[in-house]
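Quick one before lunch.
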Amino acid sequence: MMQRFSCPFCGPRDETEFFYGGEAGNERPEPAEETTAKQWARYLHMENNVKGPAREIWVHLTCGEFFVMERDTVTHEVHASEAFRGDRT
Ligand SMILES: [Zn+2]
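Model of the zinc ion complex:
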């Protein structure tokens, strides 16, 4: 089933124009020199696999902009799309 996602810059487009960039808020462990191998592996390979509302980073390939999409991973209902500013909220 084709979904329509909303780019904060371009508006609603077909899902084929978008690329999934990962979960928002998966931060690099700091400081790196005090981070255990286990923490690094977790950072590099694990995702939380949220069930329900999740914040995800997406790229709209047509305009090349990153944005955060709030989406329910169970129902695939999109709640919000906002420009990605690289902040840590
Ligand atoms: Zn766009």
